[in-house]
Design a protein that fits this description.
This protein is α/β, with parallel strands linked by helices and about 200 residues long. Helix content is about 45%, strand content about 10%. The chain contains nine helices and five strands; from the N terminus they run αβαβαβαβααβααα. α3 (about 65-70) links the parallel β2 (about 55) and β3 (about 75-80). α4 (about 90-95) crosses α5.
Length: about 200
């Protein structure tokens, strides 16, 4: 699974550092203890990148304020949080203003797993900035272990009575609805490119 290996938060920070100017990536927060995991991510970003880290909520920030705040300064790390209820209109507005968000420092989208469908549907340009750099955070704030990943895949297969191969085939043929569980499934299979 090339882009979704089990890795610690420090590895996410390292990847940001390697991606060059204006890097974007996404981290799917755990369903519980999300605030603790977000704190851990901020700590690792500060420690590894040696820059301050600021957090902005996409639900509450106006895009004008967000644009201004992200440029002052423009070289620190910024984490944009998106909950499951972020509206398609907010995603679309973020996508339209993507060039106004260009900055030297990295941008991390910290999202609820259910928010990935909104990103893919309503913000395709930002989705392309992120590419396959989507990581899944485990409840303890670390990245999901291989055992946890396999267990979750098994749960999804049993619940939907489908295999991972069937999900990939349906996604490749554009016959898979962009429902949050299917998006999560593709990411866990290392096929975030199909989201």
């Amino acid at each position: 699974m090339p882009e979704f290996l089990s890795q610690p938060m420090v590895e996410i920070a390292r990847r940001l550092d390697l991606r060059g100017p204006n890097p974007w990536l996404a981290v799917l927060g755990p369903p519980t203890a999300s605030a603790t995991a977000l704190d851990e991510l901020q700590s690792e970003l500060r420690s590894f990148l040696q820059v301050p880290t600021r957090v902005f909520s996409l639900e509450t920030a106006t895009f004008e304020d967000l644009q201004e705040a992200m440029q002052q300064p423009g070289d620190d790390a910024v984490v944009l949080t998106a909950g499951a209820d972020l509206t398609p209109e907010k995603w679309s507005a973020l996508d339209v203003m993507r060039s106004a968000l260009e900055r030297a420092g990295p941008i991390v989208l910290w999202m609820a797993p259910e928010a990935v469908a909104g990103l893919a549907e309503s913000a395709p340009n930002i989705r392309s900035f992120i590419g396959s750099s989507i990581f899944v955070a485990a409840p303890d704030g670390g990245i999901m272990t291989e055992g946890e990943r396999q267990e979750r895949l098994k749960e999804l297969e049993e619940h939907y009575r489908l295999t991972g191969e069937e999900i990939v085939r349906r996604a490749e043929s554009k016959q898979l609805p962009p429902e949050p569980h299917f998006v999560e499934w593709l990411i866990l299979l290392g096929r975030g490119d199909l989201v």
